Amino acid sequence: MRFAVTVKKNNIVFCIDANKRIKISKQVSEVINNYIQSSNDSLEAGGVMLGRFLWSEDIVIDYITVPMINDKRKKYFFFRDESTHQKEIIEKWKQSKGTCNYLGEWHTHPEDIPQPSKYDIAQWKKLIKTAQYDSDYIFFLIAGRKQIKVWIGYRESLLIKGLSICRKRRG
Fold first, then answer.
1. How many Å apart are CA 93 and CA 90, to the nearest integer?
2. Residue pair 48/90 in contact by the 8 Å Cβ criterion
3. Fewer CB within 10 Å: N-end or C-end of the chain?
4. Are β-strands 164-165 and 12-15 bridged in parallel, bridged antiparallel, or unpaired?
5. C-alpha to C-alpha distance for 16 and 25, rounded to whole angstroms
6. What angle do CA 124, 167, 111 make, to 5 degrees?
7. Distances from the Cα of 8 to the Cα of 1, 5, 29, 71, 87, angstroms
8. SS percent in the chain: helix, strand, coil, step 5
9. What is the pLDDT of residues 87-115, one digit of tens each?
10. In terms of DSSP H, where are the helices of the chain?
């Protein structure tokens, strides 16, 4: 089972289950690439992921917020200021006439193949419990220097599970 994908500027698709996928749009992949911690003095970056729930049950990440002035960024730490990112969430939601939804959080790590820290897991569980979102789960993305990984967090059980890359559908 493959849980990561080489960082590149293409659509990236992860499987949620046999019938559901989450797609990271090419535009979002390009933005994430701009924040990869490729040098020793690079700081962690992050923000929120916004997108759509499709009739096919697939989910598309169309937009991400990027680090803002009140965020705290260090080599091994990123803290998102809620108020500045929330303004952008509301603006995108209004522009989309209610179809652009909060899907989760993203950030970078200064490692080739990213793994969530204990702090990441604790923060994710807190978000699963307290964030406002329209489904039974939210997503967490970490972009490393060579790979991007995605996890899903379930509201009811607080289970956090790594997602695997989807093989191309036949048909």
1. 5
2. no
3. C
4. antiparallel
5. 16
6. 45
7. 20, 8, 7, 26, 29
8. 20, 35, 45
9. 999 999 999 998 899 999 999 999 999 99
10. 26-34, 82-95, 118-130
- pLDDT tens digit string along 30-87? 999 999 999 999 999 999 999 999 988 899 999 999 999 999 999 999 999 988 999 9
Is there a contact between 166 and 30 (Cβ–Cβ < 8 Å)?
no
Give the Cα separation of 156 and 166 in Å (integer): 25
pLDDT digits (tens, 9 = 90+) for 129-160: 999 888 999 999 999 999 999 999 999 999 99
Angstrom CA distances, 115 to 63, 93, 105, 139, stand at 23, 31, 15, 15
The pair of structure tokens assigned to 34 is 């701009």
* pTM summary value: 0.91
